[in-house]
Amino acid sequence: MQKVLTIVGPTAVGKTSFGIKCAKAFNGEVISGDSIQIYKGLDIGSGKATKQELSECKHHLIDIKEPDDNYSVKQFQDKARQLIEDIASQNKLPIIVGGTGLYIKACLYDFEFFDEAEEDDQFNELTNQEIYNILMEKDPKALEKIHINNRKRLVRALNIYNKHQIGISKIKDAQEHKFLYDSLIIGLTCPRDDLYKRIDTRVDAMIRDGLIEEIQTLLDKGITFENQSMSGIGYKEFKAYFDKEKSLEECINDVKTNSHHFAKRQYTYFKNQLNVEWYENTTEAYKRVEQWI
């Protein structure tokens, strides 16, 4: 199986620098596993690698989309898997670095997506209860995880059934949830209080580096806080500032608080969904990678 090194962990823990170190040492190329760094012009708030860092080794899936584009986990999966093949064909080591857990899981595991049909016009005339009743006959297991008030998911499940004549639950059950690669997943971590201090320091540095000006530039180009690109932490919180609903200081504190909460969710996801080996000491982590190589 093709070797793929993956480096995960919460925001601000040092994934970028460790990924570059491994790429330089083991003839690798970095594939970004971040859902915001794909966008051009969203540099500061996304914690994108600096020009200096980008020059130290080859990076992929950074600055590949315009800020008014949408991007899906399926698109990431397709592109990342193709990049793994391309990098490996050059006898180099693919290294995925990022904190977007679903993206990484979708790439590494037999996590399959399927084409969805366009919404049928007839659904516009159906109530949630009527769609729910149809699904109860066609794919009752799907309803175990879909609330009757979640119309979007109800319609999606019915679309999938109508197009594939098989329920979304059966499609998911058919997946074995196994690795597609010989993948070592290194998780970088540190004591919680230290991590929060790192996050807060990083947010303050982003403000000094011109985050507000970066957002203003995007707004001047017609990008809004409704765009997918601006939905990430570090951007969405400043809508209240530009709408004159909150002070800058309040929005900065919101970014810090949301980043703390996000770090907790990242830990939870990685620990429950991925087979991660955790390290506080990057020297030990490096030795583990060296051993695996």
Provide structural commentary.
The protein has helices spanning 15-25, 51-56, 73-89, 101-108, 128-138, 151-164, 168-173, 192-209, 211-220, 239-242, 248-273, 282-292, and strands spanning 3-8, 28-32, 59-60, 93-97, 182-188, 276-279. The chain is α/β, with parallel strands linked by helices. It has two domains: 3-111 and 177-292, 3-Layer(aba) Sandwich (Rossmann fold); 121-173, Orthogonal Bundle (Histone, subunit A), CATH 1.10.20.140. Strands 3-2-4-1-5-6 form a six-stranded parallel beta sheet, with helices on both faces. Strand 2 (28-32), helix 2 and strand 3 (59-60) form a beta-alpha-beta unit. Helix 3 (73-89) packs across helix 4 (101-108). The longest helix is centred in the C-terminal third of the chain and has 26 residues, at 248-273. The chain is globular, with a radius of gyration of 21 Å. The two termini are 13 Å apart.
